Amino acid sequence: MVRERRDFIELTPIERMRLIDALCSNLSVLSASVTAAVVSGASADEAHAETMFGYRQALKAYATFIFHVCEVCEKESKECAAMACAQKPAPGAKGKKKQTNKAKLAEWAWDEQRERIVHVMAGALDIDLWQVFRPKQPEEDFLRLFVRLGSMLLENPAALKSKVTKRAAFEMMGSCALKWGQLEQVTTALIHLLNKCEHLSGPIAELASAAADRFENAHLAAALIREVGRVDPHDYKLQQASDAVGVRCVGAFLSEIAERMPKTTMTNMSVLMPHLDGEAYSLRSAIVSVLGHLLISQKDVVAVSDHHDNSTAPLLRTKQGFLDLLVERVHDTSAFTRARVLNTWATMAEAKAIPLSHWLVVTDLAIGRLHDKGALVRKAAMGLLASLLGFNPFAPQLPSATFAESLKDYEAKLASMTPPEEETPEESAEGKESNTEDGSQEPPKQQEGDANAAIHLNGGLEAVRTMVAALKTALGFTVQLSGTVANLSNLLTSSVASDVTEAIGLLVRMRQFNVDGSTEGVRRLLGLIFSRDQAIKDAVVEAVDVLYLSNAESPMLAAAGLSELAATAALGELASLEDVLKALVLSGRLPPTGAVMKTLWSNVSSDECSNNRKAAALNVLTMCARTSPEIVRGHLGTVCAAIEAALSGEKKSPTLCRAACCALTVVRGKDGEPLELSHPVFAELAKVLHPAAPLAGRAWFPSAEQAISALYSLHPDPEHASSEVIKAFAVATFNGNSMDKIPTAVLARFLFVLGEVSLKHLVHIEKLARSVRQARVVRDREAAEAKEKGDSGDNDLAAAMGEGAVAEDLLLDATREKAEAELLATKKGAARGLVAIYAPFVVQLCSHPAVVQGPELLRGAALAALTRFMVLDAKFCEDHLKLIFTRLKVESDKGTRSALLVALGDLAFRFPNAVEPWTEHLYGIKEWGNSLHDTDASVRQHAITMLSHLVLNDMMKVKGHISEMARCLEDVDPRVAGVAKLFFHELSQKHGNPIYNLLTDLLSRLSSDEDISPDAFKRIMTRLVGFIDKERQAEAICEKMCARFAEACLAETPKPARDIAFCISQLNLSERAFKKFTESWKQYDAALYDHEVHACFIAMCHKQKRAAKPEAKQFVEAFETRLNDAHVERAAAYNVSARAEGKEETVVAEIKKEEEEPSEEKPQTVDNDEEIPSEIVRTDSKTSDEQENVAPDLPKVATPPTSPPRRSRRAAA
């Protein structure tokens, strides 16, 4: 045989093909001859026996030879593939390749020859082998050839890509198992392949299913399932640790076979159930999928009535048991299995296999898993909720009010249809006796009629009762979903990207089904457009596209949806929506000339639309125009008409006026030209900026702000135009009026115009400087290109004379600074600026008693104008900072206080050196500041937001004042606490982690703050210490804190030492850092008398033991023993001294020995099997007067256990 193999390898491709052709042809002819001989006659004469003997020998010879040819060719094919991978040239390598066996066999196509061979071999098994091998059974060695060949083909993934080869392999294995009695051998071979090859889980299940269909016999599938189930669950646990792929393949096979052959799987489910409690999570997950497939196959099995056939009762009980198992398994210890359970429920929901009775239960399970610690489980839970929502059996829209109303109606109908309660048997007997005694009895005909009426009534009752039950389930489902919106909103802030994207998708789905509260959730997700993760930003854009554009039935509905979203959005949501609309315009999903844009413009120009609806449409168009200004540029007439409509009529519309003015600010764009002076836009803006504008009260100010912005954006000479506006307001304010007679509204408008014009003019100057610099950059680029062409004489000369880029930048900066200084120029000989003449008046007005004690509108306008003037000049800012802080201290209006804080933040950005001396006042820790300690939560929120921006943008040095921001972590208002948490998180991400340098100072300041409770201090420091994630930083912090024990021990109370010990216990110390801590014994030895210090160090030891190696663990236990001994000794000494001085004694910790017998009390349970220190029993503190005649108890110190206990036990006091 070895000779045959060697000779076949040495054959040329042509010789090989000829040989295989001859073998296949002869075997085909032989198979046909044998079949004909078997069919023609079954005589038992010697001639027929000799013929069958010859056929049998020839069949065995051909099968053996072909098998070995296949074996050799498969082995050679694998070697050639491995050689090709090994000799693959490196990228860029050149040179001739050596002639290899692959080159010699270039003409040899084994894949084609394999198909022909296996097809012929599969056909050989169609012969009646019982007749060929009579009087004996077919030889096992002969059949084993086909089993081995089939296994060889299944093992090769490339061979299974051929449909012919795959079908032939299935036929050979199926025939051997179910036709020729080789079931055990085939099962063993398939199980071996299943554990060995990762790609065979699906094909083997398909093989078993195909064999069952061909031979109408499911024994092969049953044998495979039983073989898998017979394995000890402990063996699968070991295999999971060593060969997880094998267990995963077995699990995938079970899931596939359950989907293809649910009846067979159901019959053999008993052998698989023990593995549901095994420790191999892959197999548990697979059995969960099996349960799902079985329940899907039994979805038509429903409960039967008592008067029907009860043949489906066993199936119904089995189905109920499977449902209960799935409900229970959602609490599996493995996150993969929990996720598989939720995915199985989702598959069942899509197949409509979840009974209505379990609908609320499954929904509750999914909502509960939204808080799972595994991201995979949370993702699966949201997927399940989406499936339940999409395939719900109730309605396409799920507002709870609709179902509640329908339920109320049907309950009333049910109450009216419910018959009176039936009499009990005793009452019926009594009634019969009384009727007999009275001699009255109803005729039988009347009884029959009553019975028929009762049957009809019961049928109607059952229908109404069913409807009431369904409506209750639907109402409960909608209420559950509406309660989920808050959980999904929390997941939007998750640090895991999959949580955020899945939550966005689910909120979109809930909004499509009109679930209560989903609109608020959609508004919250808009803020994620500012996320750093591009996938999250894309999900937000896609969500808006799906909700308002792509799925809209018409452009009119799309425009109405976007307008409503803009009209109901808050200020922050509008900024988010603007970025989303920009992305939609840039991506082409919201084209500037599309149908949606045209519909929005038609709404603006329509007389039928309300002013609020027009304003919302204009806001949407303005957001889109920030990317494509031509959206508004071609409809200036419509915008002017909107301003005219807002200012005319009986009901003025400040909202529409502001929206129209805001739309004008985006007309010019970045490179646009200003409009002509005769353009009607300026006439409309003049109406808004007129002192007698028809908008009354505070409604005028937002419109005026946007009108001034539009004036500076579109006017060719905005300085002259704004000066005319100021003059007009000045004339209307001071024309013949004394200060006492000036109307408050008129003066407030004048002050507002002064401040707004000064700020816009400053921005205008910077914009002009930026445009000059950009023009210079373009000129230099053109000069560089010209220099490359050889025309560089003038440019070289200019550079040599110092007229290059540096000199031009200096000149430009000097010119800009001079222009800014002229705005408040008041010196003699200097030109007066645009608003300089009014600066002294504004300063005096802010300190005037009539204004300070006057209306809030006037006071706020005066302070706003002053702060805007301060932005113009550093000297003016320094001179009037004291006035601003004075007004901030005594200001009663919370809105004005918030505005002043924001203004101070802007001043700190503009002139950091001028504001730096007032840092303590800015934090609110000096007499003129109260920002972080303000009584109003909104003011505190503005303050901490402003300070966060200053610190994170390096405009304010990070000093010890930051402890005031740390206090905000425990603010009663969740918004303030949320901003504080975000601030410290972002601060920890900066280079060098500034929290590391600030932690010791924060500890001192917070520990000495009497307004912070001990529990609040621990929560604050736990969060701050959590940002120390580097080993060296933790080691250095521990060393610094230990050095503070010397001073802490001298304090009158043990609180400083307790706080230091707590912070040290929260550090994640490495083994080296912990050893250094133990070496610093002398520093904290004196503080060990206190039971809280001792408890913190003991907790730190237990934390070290959980992650320590055996040798390090012994070291920690020895140190723990030393701590216990020192604590008892120091506490006893302290108590002796306290009794002598009349002070309060400290608590002495009594540590329960591990070797002692447990007390009779019930042991405490510990969640998640966490190791905790032995419970320390504390005696009540008593003064020396109370314990004069009481002998002190001797302290008991337990020897530390050799291993940490699994559960704590209560010690006897």
UniProtKB/TrEMBL annotation:
The record's GO molecular-function terms, alphabetically, read: histone binding
* Primary location class: nucleus
Q: Where in the cell is it found?
A: Chromosome; Nucleus
The UniProt record lists the Condensin complex subunit 1 C-terminal domain at: 897-1064
Q: Where is the composition biased (Basic and acidic residues)?
A: 1151-1164
From its record, what is one biological process in GO terms?
Answer: mitotic chromosome condensation
One family from Pfam that matches here is Cnd1_N
Spell out the Gene3D superfamilies in the cross-references: Leucine-rich Repeat Variant (1.25.10.10)
Q: Please list where the region (Disordered) is annotated.
A: 415-449, 1151-1213
Tell me which UniProt keywords the record has, alphabetically.
Cell cycle, Cell division, Chromosome, DNA condensation, Mitosis, Nucleus
Example GO CC term: the record gives: nucleus
Hey, which family's this protein in?
Answer: Belongs to the CND1 (condensin subunit 1) family.
Q: What is this protein called?
A: Condensin-1 complex subunit CAP-D2
**Organism whose genome encodes this protein:** Ostreococcus lucimarinus (strain CCE9901)
Lineage runs: Eukaryota, Viridiplantae, Chlorophyta, Mamiellophyceae, Mamiellales
